[in-house]
What does this fold into?
Amino acid sequence: MRWAITFLKKPAICLFLASGLLGCSGDTVPPAETARYEFLLENSTLEMKDGVHLAVTYYRPSARTPNETFPVILEMLPYRKDDFFALGDYEYGAYFAKRGYVVARVDVRGTGGSEGSIPESEYSQAEIADAEELIEQLSKKSWSNGNVGMYGLSWSAFNSLMTAHRKPPALKAIIAAHGSTDLFYNDVHYIDGALHIDSYAHQIDTDNSMPQSPDYRIDEDYFQNRFDREPWIFTWLRQQQDGEFWRKESLKFKTPLEVPAYLIGGLLDGYRDFVMDVGRTSKAPVIAEIGPWNHAWPEYGVPGPNYEWRQKAVRWWDYWLKGIDNGILDEPRWMAFMRTGHPPATNLAAVPGYWRCDKQLPLEGGPTQRLYPQIAQQLGNAPSARETAQTLFYRAGTGMAAGGWWGEQTGDMAADDAHSLIYDSAPLTEAVEIMGMPQVRLRVAADAPLYQWTVRLEDVAPDGKVSLVSGAIINPSQRFSRLEPAALIPGEPTTLATSIHFTTWRFKPGHRIRLAVANAQFPMVWPSPTPGATSLLLGDNTWLELPVVPVKNETSPACALSPPEPSDTAPFGKEAKNDGPVFSSVRNEQTGDSTFTTTNKVAWTIRDNEYQSSESYRWNVNDAMPANARFQGERRNVFTISGNEIDLSTKALIESDALYFHVTFTKTLRQNGSLVREKTWADHILRVHQ
It folds into this structure.
């Protein structure tokens, strides 16, 4: 559930009305298109059955004819629609409202402008029940035509999928970008089943503790429902294994989806596998797209190429919510960007490659190419004649070249490969293109009950530079069952298997295909506690299987795509500063110390109010003492509302030893420079196969 504040580009022409509503008509679409609706921006509330009022901002088209009604598009988030996301939300609310849709942007109960207590965690049963009730209420509004869609990126993609599974009658279709169907394996808490401490875990606990907008009252109700609530980071650390906590809203363990879904993923996003998970099982129509970007919408995701997905979104909504037969289901329903290979880089504006379109999603069981690690660091078409053990020494700080999760652009992987077992194919004589989820099987043995394995698929250029294609982590305690984890038996061989995360890539002639295997992926996952070594047993049970597809000519007819359109900028505010995020990694080979840091600062104004937010995070580990890993986080929000300065800062510290995670989280609230309240939570949480 990562998120980023997005600010906008181009002003709209708007009118402040005496009623306090904001009328906007700043049309940035080409004049040749159909005339657009003017719309009103209105803040209101919706009352739930238990009496809690949820805050909603409506982007509502102005009717052109008497009794004209509109479909409703619901987006539900905890990311504070009145301050943190006010400017970014406007871009999408304005776009869809001008095209004849009411957009209802709602804060999750207990967050932002909504009443109630902060929920027990993300995607609580109360949250999804609220979504069902919201859909029913919105469908019955006097300006509604009775049809509702739900959409969003990240958190609101997650709850769109979860709500759709419950099939509320008025919900006709959804759009989900960067979602998940498996909250234990494919979210930001336990990546691939291994503990992941993300900056998000600190951000959300800080931002959820801010006072309720728009009044920002600091009173006993605020302390009881927000400030004094235990941070979620404790909840997540107490749930170190898969089970009911994670599965109660995970679609992977439920019946197939029966609501039509438009799915969007990114090849540099940690959640990209959900597109295939939903697309292959859904009983309702699905269209799906996976582009080369990170955790972002397709019109601005980095790197490009980009396109205007909102045009297709309007056609999707027109079909399902307005009943317009526009042929969208007769067009190719699957589109993915084939990366045609590029040198390692962290600043690409656009990835070389081309779009591939098809009538349906790729099916499982397609053509594959199996390659076997062999002695002399080779990757060949046949297994070794006899099982051979190769020793892998555990270096806990290995992995920083791949970044903080399976996403974002990466530089040369040589630093990580130096502490990995690597196996290279012979130089290719012809291009090989892959699309899908490569499969890996490893036969291993270890000298301690817990290790982690990481596998990376890489491209080695003739000049020796190494590009990351994709990867995956294996927590071996889950090798037999995710629900009944079991420690390794030291010295006893066992077989591990996993899918590498969805990817596309062209391995060019002259390049080599590389499989890299290590026991650490720092800071992406928390280091296992015991220094030592493992063995990789080469033979029939250690292999890599690639999902190959026919190589296409890049000049062949491409998918029908429109360039990104300019977006309307919110007329009531602007960004003042945006420094970050900035990443840094330092490894000392002599001492074995590894440090990874991120920092970020942003400031903006909304009407006459000023907002600032800053954060810094640091991960540390030493190769000789991997049990004693450490995470430190600091975040500070300073909001000046009508001259009243509210300053909330938080500090988090997670330290581990061989048996426990030692966790401390402190919230400090100041008002106009004076200390109002400070509260610290601390716990020692037993390590359980992590």
